[in-house]
Structure to design on (111 residues):
C-alpha cells in the first residue's frame, strides 16, 4: 500500500504518512482509517511467480538477454509502431506538473 496524499492514515494502529508505503498481507483483513482529513492510498496486489527477474529502465524480464532484446525491439518498432510522432508526450513547460485522473479531473501539487 502506498499513501499518495492527504492526512496521516492509520493502518492496523500503525501511522502511515504521505509518500510512504507499507507491505500488507493479502490473507489478513486490514483496517485502514483516516481522521477528518481526506486520505488517498493506492493498494496493489500480486502473486509471486517464482521466476527469475532482471530489470533495467522500464523493462522487467527474466534474463539480461531478454532485457537487451526488449531494448532492441523498442528501438526497432517502438512497441509496434505507435501512431504518434515522438515516442514521448511533451506538455508545455508552463503547464507545470499535474496528474489526470480517470474521471477527467486534473490535480496539481501544492506550491
Amino acid at each position: 500500500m502506498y499513501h499518495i496524499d492527504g492526512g496521516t492514515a492509520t493502518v492496523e494502529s500503525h501511522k502511515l504518512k504521505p509518500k510512504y508505503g507499507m507491505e500488507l498481507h493479502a490473507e489478513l483483513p486490514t483496517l485502514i482509517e483516516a481522521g477528518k482529513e481526506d486520505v488517498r492510498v493506492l493498494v496493489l496486489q500480486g502473486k509471486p511467480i517464482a521466476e527469475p527477474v532482471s530489470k533495467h529502465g522500464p523493462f522487467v524480464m527474466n534474463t539480461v538477454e531478454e532485457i537487451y532484446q526488449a531494448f532492441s525491439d523498442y528501438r526497432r518498432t517502438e512497441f509496434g509502431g505507435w501512431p504518434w510522432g515522438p515516442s514521448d508526450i511533451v506538455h508545455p513547460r508552463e503547464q507545470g506538473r499535474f496528474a489526470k485522473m480517470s474521471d477527467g479531473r486534473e490535480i496539481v501539487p501544492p506550491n
Summary: The mean pLDDT is 87.
